[in-house]
């Protein structure tokens, strides 16, 4: 008895937006290369599928661009400038011929050494490390040293700038997430429905065709199934990596509770 090929379930509804768009974009390309007409997919359905995929890709591009607003860049630049000034002031003070200035500065050089290059860190990591720097510098013994250098107000300004950056980032993230969620609720189901109908037509054409037709369609089904398996694996790895990062963050900062 002939072994009947079937198209595997994709579980694409579980994919994040970027992977969801990529999955459907590649699936479209595979069927298009084979020929929609050969599997009884009419031009209207193929065009609708492509239109919905393009809409998803555009949403993802907008999401990436959204966080790069001038307001957020300005806030990041502000804290970078303060950080550079603070580190420079400590290094300069460590060269002072006045012992009351030089000695606390030398101690602060050791405290700030792990934070070297902080202003060049990835933005979210910089936020977390800046919080750590401020906590270290505000410990009683270090706060006295900072005061001896006349930099107490700079620490306050750095704290304010760091919180300002995070406030802007959170606001943009929450706003865009809400917008994307609403858009995705409309677009993603349409794309999935198009894909479902197309794969049904592929299977029906394969199943009802003669031996020659099945032999022609079989490689397409194999390609789709291979791609589906790869995307499922990528999704699982992504989820596992997210879980690992969450565990690492909780271990580094056990009192921090992440919001979805």
Could you walk me through the main structural features you see in this protein, from its secondary elements to its overall organization?
With 260 residues, the protein is an all-alpha fold. The chain contains 8 helices and no strands. It has helices at residues 17-34, 43-66, 70-93, 99-112, 123-137, 140-148, 152-208, 211-252. The chain is rod-shaped and about 95 Å long. It starts with 16 loop residues before the first helix and ends in an 8-residue tail after the last helix.
Fold topology:
Blueprint: H1 17-34, H2 43-66, H3 70-93, H4 99-112, H5 123-137, H6 140-148, H7 152-208, H8 211-252
List keywords for this structure.
single chain; 260 residues; mainly alpha; 8 helices; rod-shaped; disordered C terminus
Q: Could you provide a short overview of the structure?
A:
This protein is mainly α. The protein contains eight helices and no strands.
Low-confidence regions: 246-260
> Which secondary-structure class do the elements indicate?
mainly alpha
Helix content: over 70%
Instruction: Give the number of DSSP strands.
Output: 0
Give the helices and strands as they follow along the chain. HHHHHHHH
Rg calc: 28 Å
């Amino acid at each position: 008895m002939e072994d009947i090929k079937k198209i595997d379930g994709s579980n694409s509804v579980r994919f994040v937006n970027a992977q969801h768009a990529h999955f459907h974009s590649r699936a479209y390309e595979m069927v298009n290369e084979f020929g929609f007409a050969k599997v009884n997919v009419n031009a209207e359905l193929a065009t609708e599928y492509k239109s919905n995929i393009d809409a998803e890709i555009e949403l993802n591009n907008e999401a990436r661009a959204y966080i790069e607003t001038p307001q957020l860049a300005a806030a990041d630049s502000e804290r970078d400038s303060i950080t550079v000034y603070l580190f420079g002031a400590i290094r300069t003070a460590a060269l002072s011929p006045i012992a009351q200035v030089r000695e606390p500065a030398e101690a602060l050089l050791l405290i700030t050494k792990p934070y070297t290059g902080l202003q060049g860190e990835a933005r979210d990591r910089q936020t977390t490390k800046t919080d750590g720097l401020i906590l270290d510098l505000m410990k009683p013994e270090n706060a006295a040293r900072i005061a001896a250098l006349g930099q107490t107000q700079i620490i306050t300004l750095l704290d304010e700038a760091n919180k300002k950056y995070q406030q802007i980032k959170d606001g943009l993230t929450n706003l865009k997430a809400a917008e994307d969620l609403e858009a995705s609720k409309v677009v993603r189901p349409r794309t999935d429905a198009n894909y479902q109908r197309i794969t049904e037509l592929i299977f029906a054409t394969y199943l009802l065709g003669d031996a020659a037709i099945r032999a022609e369609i079989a490689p397409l089904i194999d390609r789709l199934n291979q791609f589906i398996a790869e995307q499922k694996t990528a999704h699982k790895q992504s989820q596992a990596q997210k879980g690992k990062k969450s565990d690492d963050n909780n271990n580094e900062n056990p009192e921090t509770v992440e919001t979805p």
